[in-house]
Write a structure and sequence with these properties.
Number of helices: 3
Largest sheet: 8 strands, antiparallel
Oligomer: single chain
CATH architecture: Roll
Number of strands: 10
CATH superfamily: Methylpurine-DNA glycosylase (MPG)
Structural class: alpha+beta
Length: 189
DNA sequence: CTTAGGATCGCCT
DNA sequence: GGCGATCCTAAGC
């Protein structure tokens, strides 16, 4: 027997769209700062919109690593974006964390973002990495260990799905997931 | 409300 | 050289 692969009640070896749906509502903290995940997107190896689509490179290497670890990449040369690796090592699937409902460390978030409005602190993949101070240093780190902390979602959250945002390929795949009615989404569904 | 442009890194053709 | 899994600001309707 191996130890349980569950982390916050989620098996990260599952397909990324299943993990993405289950992550909605999960509490994510980085060094004690964070909140509830309200928006995610799934990406997979056989997915023209995925960084892993064309195989491993230096940037996306963590996406081909072990499940339950972080894949952090730089977007547009400016922002950081945080993913959770899924499937077995070598597969190349992940879930992009797109928005949080801020719950812990609001003062630090405001200082890092240079903003007061709570609704805008973590309402996008680049924004939440700035608010939580996620950077290249977190790439490849295990989500089960500090500085990361995950806690299971309260059951019964209403999850909605739709097309992913900001991509130009595989537009029809409904792999964006969100907490229904949340005001902390990057955009409404 | 919508649209446009700039910042600036890694990988692609 | 081009183009992003983005964000912010400014301008136009």
């Amino acid at each position: 027997m191996t130890r349980s692969p569950l982390l916050a009640g989620i098996d990260f070896r599952a397909p990324s769209h299943e993990v993405a749906r289950q992550l909605v509502g999960v509490l994510l903290l980085v060094d004690g700062v964070g909140g509830r995940i309200v928006e995610t997107e799934a990406y997979d190896r056989d997915d023209a919109a995925s960084h892993s689509y064309s195989g491993p490179t230096e940037r996306n290497g963590a996406m081909f690593g072990a499940p339950g670890h972080a894949y952090v990449y730089r977007s547009y040369g400016i922002h950081w974006c945080l993913n959770f690796v899924c499937r077995e090592a070598g597969h190349g699937a992940g879930v992009l964390i797109r928005a949080l409902e801020p719950l812990a460390g609001l003062a630090q978030m405001r200082a890092r973002r240079g903003l007061d409005a709570e609704r805008l602190l973590c309402s996008g993949p680049g924004k939440l990495c700035q608010a939580l101070a996620v950077s290249r240093a977190h790439n490849g780190m295990a989500l089960a260990l500090p500085p990361f902390a995950l806690a299971a979602a309260a059951p019964g959250a209403a999850v909605v799905a739709g097309p992913r945002i900001g991509i130009s390929k595989a537009m029809a795949v409904p792999w964006r997931f969100g907490l229904a009615g949340s005001r902390f989404l990057s955009r409404p569904f």
